[in-house]
Amino acid sequence: MTIETIAVLSPGDMGHGVGQAIKEMGFRVITSLDGRGELSRERAASAGIEDVGSIESVVRDADLILSILPPEQAPTLGRAVADAMKATGLTKPFADCNAVSPDTVLEIAAMFEEVGATFIDGGIIGPPPHSGVPKIYVSGRDVSAIEVLDGDRMKVISMGPEVGHASGIKMCYASVTKGTLVLRTAALMVAENIGVGDALQAEFEKSQAGVWKSMTDVLPWYAMNSARYVGEMEEIAKTYASAGLSSGFHTGAADTYRILASTPLSEESREHRDLTRTLDEAIKVFANAALERKAAK
C-alpha cells in the first residue's frame, strides 16, 4: 500500500509537532478538528495540517491514521475511528501512539480486529520533532505502514509482532522520566510548606548540580502538561500492577499532577507561557495549591 496521506488525531502539543514533521517529509497531513479548541486549530494551521471535518472523512482520505492525544481519550477515539471504518466499509492502518498501558492498548486493538483493520501499537519517547528527534517504538503483526516515517525527523523502532510491547516500553520509560520530575516537584512543594524550601533548594544547587539544572530548566513551566500526565501516571500504575509491582508510587504521582493541574499555571501552553517565571515562583504556586486542597478536605 502506498502511503501518501497521513491523519494525525489530534494536533496537540506532540501531535501537531509530529504532523508538521510528516508534512515536511512530503506527505499530505490531515485531521478532524470537530470538537477541538482554538489552540488545536492554531496548531494545525501553523503545521500545515488540513482539517477534513469528520472522522468518517479522515477514514476516507487517509492511508494511515495516527492517534496522538491524552491517554484517557485514547479508547474513545479508537472506538470512534473503528466505528467510522465500519460505517464507511473502509479499513486503514491505525496506530495508537498514546501513553497507555499494554492492557489498555489491547482493548483498543480489539476494536480494530472487529473491523479487520491493521492495528499498530506505538509509543513515542522523546520531545516533539520541533525540539528533538523522537523515537516511535512500534509493535504488531504488520507495522510497515508507519515505517515510512523513519528518517531524520523521527526514528521508528520495531519491537516485533506482539501488541503491548511498544506501549510497555513507553510506560517503563515514562515511569522514570516523568515520575522523577514530579517527585522532585513534590519534594520542593513539601519543603516549601514545612518552611525549609530555601534551604533545600540551596542544598540541591550545591550538591546536585545536574538535578538542580533540570529543575530550573523544566519545573517553572511543568504545570502546562500536568492534566495530561495524570492519565499517563494512572496508565503506568496499571502497568506496574499487572507486572506484580506496587502501583502506589505512580498513583501518588498522578495525585501530585492533579495539584499542578488545579493551578492557573496549567492553563499555559508551549506557545503561550511566562518565560520569566522562576522555579521558586512556580513552587510557591504549587505548594499553596496543595495547602488549599488540604484545607478544603
How would you characterize this protein structure?
This protein is α/β, with parallel strands linked by helices and 297 residues long. It has 2 domains: 5-161, Rossmann fold; 169-296, N-(1-d-carboxylethyl)-l-norvaline Dehydrogenase, domain 2, CATH 1.10.1040. Helix content is 53%, strand content 11%. It is built from 11 helices and 8 strands. The chain has helices at 13-24, 38-47, 55-61, 74-88, 102-115, 165-193, 197-207, 209-218, 226-242, 248-261, 279-296, and strands at residues 5-9, 28-31, 50-51, 64-67, 94-96, 119-125, 135-139, 155-158. Strands 3-2-1-4-5-6-7-8 form an 8-stranded mixed beta sheet, sandwiched between helices. Helix 4 (74-88) links the parallel strand 4 (64-67) and strand 5 (94-96). Helix 7 (197-207) packs across helix 8 and helix 9 runs antiparallel to helix 10 (248-261). The longest helix has 29 residues, at 165-193. It is globular. The mean pLDDT is 96.
Q: How is the secondary structure organized here?
A:
Blueprint: E1 5-9, H1 13-24, E2 28-31, H2 38-47, E3 50-51, H3 55-61, E4 64-67, H4 74-88, E5 94-96, H5 102-115, E6 119-125, E7 135-139, E8 155-158, H6 165-193, H7 197-207, H8 209-218, H9 226-242, H10 248-261, H11 279-296
Parallel strand pairs: 1-2, 1-4, 2-3, 4-5, 5-6, 7-8
Antiparallel strand pairs: 6-7
